[in-house]
Amino acid sequence: MALATFFLLLSSLISLGLPWIVRRQVDSILVDRQMVTLTLLLGLISLFLIQAFFSFGHNYLLGAVGQRVLAELRASLFSHLQTLSLSFFTRRRTGELLSRLTNDLAVIQTLSTEMPVNLTRQALTLIGGVAILLYMNWRLTFLVLLLIPIVVAIARWMGKRLKQFSISVQDHLADTTTLMEEMISGIRTIKSFGRESYEQIRFSRQIEKTLAVTLARLRISAAFGPVMIFLGFSAAAGILWYGAREILLGKITPGEIIAFIIYAMIITGPIGSFARLFSQLQEGLGSSQRVFEILDTKPLVTDAPNARPLPPIRGEVRFREVSFHYLADQPVLQEISFAVQPGEKVALIGPSGAGKSTLIHLLHRFYDPVSGSIEVDGRPLKEVTIKSYYDQIAFVPQEVILFGGTLRENILYGKPDATEAELLAASRAAHAHDFITAFPHGYQTQVGEKGLTLSGGQRQRIAIARAFLKNPRLLILDEATAYLDNESELFVQEALERLMAGKTTFVIAHRLTTIQKADRILVLNKGCLAEQGTHPELIERRGLYYHLYTLKIVGAEASLPEQETS
Ligand code: ATP
């Protein structure tokens, strides 16, 4: 930064000196009738060369500083986003976040690279230019300076309009990104309802609106330069008119008046661009506010100051009067208490919206309870470090996410330092080895974008292999509701049973066999623990479970194969 400023200073000084040399030459040609000497010509060319070098130096150095700032900002945004609690993401639309990461960062990028260079150069030019003008002819200078307030007033007015439109453009761009993101993630729904043309119209309307405000901004920014140039030339004409009289009166030389006009034009530039830079700065401040709002958000779930690592656990889980809400006046879980012994299989069931996923989120420490506590092996989760807890649990979600990369990398996601033997054992146990080796590239097969697409059952088996590698003591499952074909279903079930063996398991259960085999069934209703017990116990009680079991589950699973419903 310091070196860049030094270069900038030198290159600006040379720029300011050039009209002075022009003045001398004009006078020696016009007044003294002398030819330009070769030495002077060479001297001038050398000066241009030096100036070019200094210009390159400060352009590059200041640009590089800006780019580094941006790269760092991008990296810290990415890593900070990962530390934020789940609630941060559920409250925002993905498209809106992406817009901040792309559109807003782009604005900051322009600002951080161009702003320092422009601002410093313009300031130097303005100060130097005015000083030289005053030295040359103070009366003429005052004439020039009279024009400045007019220029500034016009520039500021235009700047303000530009800022208003810029905010609106950024908002519209964010909405456009959101629509695009929703289209991509919701493509199945769009296609199955045949709403492509509706989405097209919705998107076209959005594009039209964005285009309209962008064009409005463009009109102003396009007019900006010409207006400033017009004002500059008008000033030059005024100086010429006044200067001509002074020359005729013999008060100044022709060289002086030419140099004066050049200087006057030189300083009109900075005055115009100050206002523009000011509005750019406003625009940039808006964007950085949106970006720093993310960086300043603190994760809700963090390690307590006195948190200790959780020693290897046996898998005992206890909920003590746990209550939770997402929004202050809408309780989701109310005073839930239960205790689970190591190795127990717990099935969570209940009507939709009863709070099953929320309970799992709390157990996973995606959120902390509002009141009450969750204990693992007698230790409250709030008193242990998150990492040491996560190292001992595994989560198999309903929707398995595979990251871009090879199948091997995807399985190793659970334990990057696993040995080859561990990897193969986990894949075999998860019934994934056979289908993986059937692909031409085996474990090196690329998945995700432009790669292989796996079936639902295959994805689940990859997720199970991931969990096997981790060998957790506590397992959290969100059972897939999607219908798998018989063979795939069987493989997934077998793999899951092997995975659950000997581990404390919580499963949001959708399949009858899972529920029937559970050591304990927790029946949730409207955020309360309505009943708990084994399948026979709860059937006998003829309460909510009995009702759900006979009416809903049997009905819903009637279409499943024989073995499921028998
Ligand atoms: P389902 O079987 O339909 O998945 P569930 O039993 O898993 O339902 P939860 O997802 O835990 O139910 O939701 C419980 C309640 O909490 C619902 O009323 C839901 O509207 C609310 N809820 C869930 N997530 C959020 C959130 N991020 N912000 C606000 N409210 C939420």
From the structure above, extract its key features:
ABC transporter transmembrane region fold, six-stranded mixed beta sheet, disordered C terminus, 19 helices, 2 domains, Rossmann fold, alpha/beta, four-stranded antiparallel beta sheet, single chain, binds adenosine-5'-triphosphate, elongated, 566 residues
Word description of this protein:
This protein is of the alpha/beta class. The chain has two domains: 2-295, ABC transporter transmembrane region fold; 317-550, P-loop containing nucleotide triphosphate hydrolases (Rossmann fold, 3-Layer(aba) Sandwich), CATH 3.40.50. The protein contains 19 helices and twelve strands. It has helices spanning 2-30, 38-83, 86-90, 94-136, 138-185, 187-192, 196-248, 254-296, 356-363, 386-390, 407-412, 420-429, 433-437, 456-470, 486-500, 512-517, 535-541, 544-556, 562-565; strands at residues 317-327, 330-340, 345-349, 371-376, 379-380, 393-396, 405-406, 446-447, 474-478, 504-508, 520-525, 528-533. It has a six-stranded mixed beta sheet with strand order 6-9-10-3-11-12, with helices on both faces. The model is unreliable at 557-566 (pLDDT under 50). It binds adenosine-5'-triphosphate. Adenosine-5'-triphosphate (ATP) binds next to strand 1 and helix 9. Residues 90, 326-327, 332, 350, 352-358 line the site of adenosine-5'-triphosphate.
